[in-house]
Amino acid sequence: MLVVGFIFFGAGCVSPGKDALLAQRDPIALVSVASNWDINWKDEDSINPKQPNIFINRRTLRQNPDLAFIANAEELINTAEKIIRDHMPGSGVINLVEKEKVLSSRAYQEARINKHQTNRELVKPADYRFPDYRDKNFPPALARETGIQRSMFVEFNFTKLMYSGMGKNGNCGADVDMKLIILDAQGKILYNKIFSLGSRERIKVSGGVYSHSGLMGLFESAITDACYEFLDRLEY
Predict the structure, then answer these.
(1) Structure pTM?
(2) Which residues contact 217 (CB under 8 A, 6 or more apart)?
(3) 46 pLDDT exceeds 60?
(4) Rounded distance between C-alpha atoms, residue 55 and residue 100, angstroms
(5) How far is CA 87 from the centre of its chain?
(6) Interatomic CA distance for residues 29 and 209, integer angstroms
(7) How many whole angstroms separate alpha carbon 152 and alpha carbon 33?
């Protein structure tokens, strides 16, 4: 595995509400965590697993279950939610409301669904829904029912990227885009930013085949870095 520095780009807009966000230390409701299902090669379409590929040794794949040439975020999105919950509260910058208090609330269950996300067939952790951050009725309803004054929406885009070699032979890394939107109790956007990072490490790719566990490890590290980058930029 080759170790390199990670790549970060920040985008989006941060309103003056950032000061209000930092001034209040009451817990924030994590109401949405979503991502793309297919983890494609960057700027490439999905791979059809039934399509013949002369570069893939299918016998090798059968002999080693960890090897893969396609990947999805069905399990990774659960890991991403856990990383957010594990790392943000310990920062002293962002505190999160207990998961069940949010997800079991009537306001959450009746929130308008984000059709843009469902139409793109995004995935989410178990028990979560796809609430629409543009639903102006949701934040006030949540505040009235639970006293929660702020809500956080997180959406990831996961891709693989070749960093060296020829074609799909060489070394690849994990690319993560993490979009964060935080609303106040009236539905006003306090924070809106996208963090884009490349993983610090690389794994080997041969004929488009790579270690599935290795790739997931790269994504987990990149998601963690994205969380820390958000917290650092929010605080300083």
Answers:
(1) 0.88
(2) none
(3) yes
(4) 47
(5) 14
(6) 39
(7) 9
